[in-house]
Design a protein that fits this description.
single chain, 657 residues, alpha+beta, 7-stranded antiparallel β-sheet, 5-stranded mixed β-sheet, membrane, transmembrane, Thioredoxin-like_sf, Cyt_c_assmbl_TM_dom
Length: 657
């Protein structure tokens, strides 16, 4: 029995560091190039980051208000040098995230690199500061702050700095990031298929469909056979891709974040989509100058390769009134992504045109099997018009959220979408008509089924007006916290404090209408007062999986009820940059650094008390005691039943104490 106890003790000793430990998913190093610069010479501080497999580190060159933690480097008062320009991230990846951040962010995997230019102004120089970044795991769902100090000094300066001088508080200078080229996004393949789908829809519009007989007639007169037909398709692709390349060149990835978050482009895109949508509904047509179209069409009569090129150009110009809004929509979406995204978008869109027209040019007999032109083509165009108008409000919503205008909160956005898709439902069922519609008759089966599907979507939206999370549209709708009324799902039975005013509650909030605290000591005192266990949520503004846990796990009625009724909640944001009053600063016993911000102090508390530095991290404590957590803390786990079991264990343990 003694041997068994000895083995068990040894096992627990060995595994305990694994069960609760600080993670170090990214390691920073730094050098100066050249290593020994002379006075007046420029040099570069090179920061290199080695990132563990399965993790990624947020970069420095995207909007800091987007959500994720932007990497920053802070330089203390420069000694013997001056900064030249801003911090540059070298070739990070780029991704547009709709589900959580609704914007474009940049990041590194495996390894990252940042560079900062300086100019040496004295023989004795010393570069001192600290870096602040965040790494997240795609596998475990955890996010970990990665920060620390760095020092690079000339040999003379390194030996001259006394201990007393090192302890002095000196001003700090934050290096602003500047944009740099980025690699393609992982979603390019998906975007390609979306663009191709838009091209296929454009084929069914009244501006494009009637051009098929013109194409067949042209190629029956040519003597080039299949070769000219393939060339025709290639020219269609090249013309569209040319415009995509122009956009990529003038508004590549360095401009993408501005387009995705700034109010000016988002309001511009909102107006463009409304303009496109009204055009599709039949109010007016977007046409190119007739002289330009006729001139290009006349050159197509020359025949041969030149004639084929101008025939393709004629197709693009003549169909512009229907394809322009769709192609423009693809280009607008592409302009908010990676450098190659506009090119990929136009490639997919144009292939949807090129392949069918090429096949009809080779096999003109196929034309006899096509359905005849008719009112159905205008119906397709009208449906696209409603969709364009609905999507327009997404751009307005982005600007509204980023700048906190509160013009388009969740319930207003939903009301607009319900009205738009409700009108589309009435149109599809034949209850309303628009200017270019033909005589109404019996509804076809496909139209009836599509109308029913749109009606089902409207029914799905309606509960959202009363607080339903509508998870399937989480990437498109404004956050639930922006909704003025949320029905019973947002009510909380336990109110913190008699006045409802909590520390930091003026700029921090809990999700799903929950009420709680943002300061540990305040929450602990209240929990002891009301006789409930304490639920600590170590979280972060830039923690993707913290948002996913809140949206997919916390929102479940079983979890939400327990959080509302059985616990006192305290959310400790470990990446919040709010600087606290100087009398609250302290030197950490963990790393010896001064903790000035709310986030730094919360993270230091998490590390020193629970030996963990990753978020999300959930801890259940008995506020009457200063001991260990009542049950083993948990991290990211999207299984609702697991989280319910975790909460129930905490309640049982609290009642036993």
């Amino acid at each position: 029995m003694k041997y068994k106890l000895l083995i068990l003790s040894l096992f627990l000793f060995l595994v305990s560091p694994v069960l609760a430990q600080k993670l170090v998913p990214a390691k920073w190093s730094w050098t100066l190039e050249p290593a020994k610069p002379s006075v007046g010479q420029e040099a570069e501080i090179v920061f290199q980051v080695k990132i563990e497999k399965g993790w990624y580190l947020y970069s420095s060159d995207f909007d800091k208000d987007l959500g994720p933690v932007v990497t920053t480097v802070t330089i203390k008062n420069p000694v013997g040098f001056e900064l030249v320009g801003g911090l540059k991230a070298i070739n990070p990846h780029s991704k547009f995230d709709k589900e959580i951040w609704n914007g474009t962010y940049t990041y590194f995997t495996e390894k990252g690199e940042f560079r900062q230019k300086i100019k040496i102004t004295a023989e004795n120089w010393k570069i001192e500061g600290f870096y602040d970044s965040q790494a997240c795991s795609n596998e475990s769902g955890l996010c970990v702050p990665v920060k620390g100090p760095f020092v690079i000094a000339s040999s003379a300066a390194a030996s001259d700095v006394s201990t007393d001088e090192a302890k002095k508080k000196i001003p700090e200078l934050s290096i602003e990031a500047t944009a740099s080229p980025v690699a393609p996004s992982e979603s390019l393949w998906q975007f390609f298929w979306i663009a191709m789908g838009a091209g296929l829809l454009a084929l069914l519009t009244p501006c494009v469909y009637p051009l098929i007989p013109m194409t067949v007639s042209f190629f029956t007169k040519q003597k080039g056979g299949k070769g000219l037909a393939f060339l025709y398709g290639s020219f269609i692709v090249l013309i569209y891709v040319f415009f995509g390349t122009l956009l990529a060149f003038f508004a590549g990835a360095s401009f993408a974040n501005f387009l995705s978050t700034h109010w000016i482009p988002n309001l511009l895109f909102f107006g463009i989509f409304i303009f496109f949508g009204i055009s599709f509904l039949g109010a007016f047509e977007i046409v190119l100058p007739s002289g330009m179209v006729n001139s290009v069409d006349a050159k197509s009569d020359k025949g041969g390769i030149i004639g084929v090129f101008f025939m393709a150009f004629t197709l693009v110009l003549v169909s512009f009134s229907c394809t322009g809004p769709l192609a423009g929509s693809i280009l607008i979406a592409a302009s908010q992504g990676a450098f190659v995204k506009p090119i990929i978008g136009m490639l997919g869109f144009s292939l949807a045109f090129a392949i069918p027209f090429t096949l009809f040019a080779i096999f003109p007999g196929f034309m006899q099997k096509l359905p005849k032109s008719g009112n159905w083509m205008n119906e397709v165009k009208v449906v696209l018009g409603f969709l364009e108008i609905a999507l327009a409000f997404k751009f307005l919503s982005v600007a509204d959220q980023v700048y906190h205008w509160h013009l388009l909160d969740r319930e207003i956005f939903l009301a607009i979408w319900i009205a738009i898709f409700g009108a589309l439902t009435l149109y599809l069922f034949g209850k309303i008509s628009l200017p270019h519609d033909g005589p109404s008759g019996k509804l076809s089966i496909p139209r009836t089924l599509f109308a029913t599907a749109v009606l089902a979507f409207v029914v799905y939206l309606i509960p959202g007006m009363f607080g339903a999370p509508l998870k399937g549209l989480s990437g498109w709708l404004p956050p639930l916290s922006s909704q003025d009324f949320k029905g019973n799902s947002g009510e909380v039975t336990v109110k913190p404090g008699s006045t409802g005013v909590v520390k930091y509650g003026d700029f921090l909030e809990l999700p799903l209408g929950l009420t709680g605290f943002f300061d540990y000591q305040e929450a602990k005192a209240y929990a002891a007062q009301v006789g409930k266990p304490l639920f600590i949520d170590f979280t972060g503004h830039g923690c993707v999986n913290c948002r996913k846990m809140e949206e997919y796990v916390w929102s479940d009625p079983k979890v939400l009820k327990r959080l509302q009724e059985e616990y006192v909640i305290v959310a400790l944001y470990c990446d919040d940059k709010t600087e606290l009053p100087a009398d609250q600063w302290y030197i950490s016993k963990v790393d010896g650094q001064e903790k000035k911000t709310l986030g730094d102090q919360n993270l230091d508390f998490q590390i020193s008390r629970f030996n963990s530095n990753a978020q999300p991290h959930y801890v259940l404590l008995d506020p009457r005691k200063e001991g260990e957590p009542m049950v083993t803390p948990v991290a990211f786990d999207a299984n609702v039943d697991h989280f319910v079991e975790f909460l129930d264990k905490g309640v049982r343990q609290y009642k036993m104490n």
